[in-house]
């Protein structure tokens, strides 16, 4: 018989596994590994997501920068084509799944950005020019244009959107390097990470990444995993095989959530069951672009009420800070100078219930916040 798991238990499981309830993260590498990446398109948001999952960290305590400098953390284009902080020992497997989809081979992508021949030439050039160098965007653009002898690529390479650089990052040829003042730099993961192994076989990588995702973001469907990974870009037959093989090997078990068949790690079934009698997690505040929200996606009605989705998923791709009650979004919030301002979706949130989170975010942001009277 397929175990049934209520949605409230799914939310409670995710909150605990992601370090939101106990704030037991050991630092940026531990948090990034546990979450299978922390979105870092906005660096301050990534630092807040890490600090909010630790007992005493702050967003400006320098631990992210130290881990990047030590090569235990990478900042690179990752899932959904967005910049992420990845644990260096987990990054090869994540990148292998992204590279395997070869989205840059699709006709529509090539018509918009570059041909297959141009991307092949760029990959060969990147492997050479970044083998032992750290370059600014301007230096990288000049070097790649010179090696490919294709001046037509210069404008796209120089774009801040990184359309041509993302496939290179997914192939493990490129990542962000140490900042040069206010300028972004690029290098090879092999320059930053001692003993960088290169990318594994995609099927081998899936045996690592799928369970890691479900350990933090499960139970979930294969479709939900692919939405998180590549906005649905993985070939469907390959995606089904990854999950079926893990299920047949006993690593995954099917469960139902409100009648929908999902997958959980078999070793997590007892933890899910134990949550049936546990008290629901109380109020929690999460910062912008938080992995708890991005893992499920704002289209998940059990996370964000559909009528309030636009309050969370805003213009230009901005994901707002959210107020959670039992793991479900009940409002948004902001820190306006020294005031913590909550905008509820419906019922007001009592100030007394927010006192604990006010203290946490005063610590994370490094300044005392007050609640409205």
From TrEMBL:
Pfam families assigned: AlkZ-like
Keywords assigned: DNA-binding
Keyword DNA-binding carried by entry: yes
Single GO term (MF): DNA binding
Protein name from the UniProt record: Winged helix DNA-binding protein
Originating species: Actinomycetospora cinnamomea
């Amino acid at each position: 018989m397929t175990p049934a798991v209520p949605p409230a238990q799914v939310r409670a499981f995710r909150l605990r596994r992601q370090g939101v309830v106990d704030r037991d993260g050991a630092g940026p590498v531990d948090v990034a590994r546990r979450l299978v990446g922390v979105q870092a398109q906005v660096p301050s948001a990534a630092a807040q997501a890490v600090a909010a999952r630790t007992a005493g960290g702050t967003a400006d305590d320098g631990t992210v920068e130290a881990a990047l400098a030590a090569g235990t953390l990478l900042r690179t284009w990752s899932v959904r084509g967005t910049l992420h902080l990845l644990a260096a020992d987990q990054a090869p497997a994540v990148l292998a799944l992204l590279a395997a989809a070869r989205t840059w081979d699709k006709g529509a992508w090539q018509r918009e950005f570059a041909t297959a021949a141009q991307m092949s030439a760029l990959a060969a050039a990147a492997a050479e020019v970044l083998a032992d160098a750290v370059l600014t965007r301007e230096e990288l653009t000049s070097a790649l244009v010179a090696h490919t002898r294709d001046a037509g690529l210069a404008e796209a390479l120089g774009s801040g959107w990184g359309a041509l650089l993302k496939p290179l990052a997914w192939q493990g040829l490129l990542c962000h390097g140490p900042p040069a003042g206010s300028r972004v730099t690029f290098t090879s993961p092999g320059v930053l990470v001692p003993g960088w192994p290169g990318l594994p076989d995609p099927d081998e990588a899936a045996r690592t990444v799928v369970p890691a995702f479900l350990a933090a973001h499960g139970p979930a469907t294969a479709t939900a995993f692919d939405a998180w990974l590549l906005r649905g870009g993985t070939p469907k037959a390959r995606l089904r095989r990854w999950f079926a093989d893990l299920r047949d090997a006993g690593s995954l078990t099917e469960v139902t959530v409100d009648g929908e068949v999902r997958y959980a790690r078999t070793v997590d079934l007892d933890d899910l069951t134990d949550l049936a009698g546990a008290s629901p997690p109380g109020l929690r505040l999460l910062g912008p672009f938080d992995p708890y929200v991005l893992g499920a996606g704002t289209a998940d009605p059990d996370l964000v009420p559909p009528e309030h989705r636009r309050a969370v998923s805003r213009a230009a791709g901005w994901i707002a800070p959210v107020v959670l009650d039992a793991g479900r979004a009940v409002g948004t919030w902001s820190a306006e100078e020294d005031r913590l301002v909550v905008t509820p979706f419906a019922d007001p949130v009592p100030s007394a219930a927010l006192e604990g989170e006010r203290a946490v975010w005063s610590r994370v942001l490094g300044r005392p916040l007050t609640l409205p009277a």
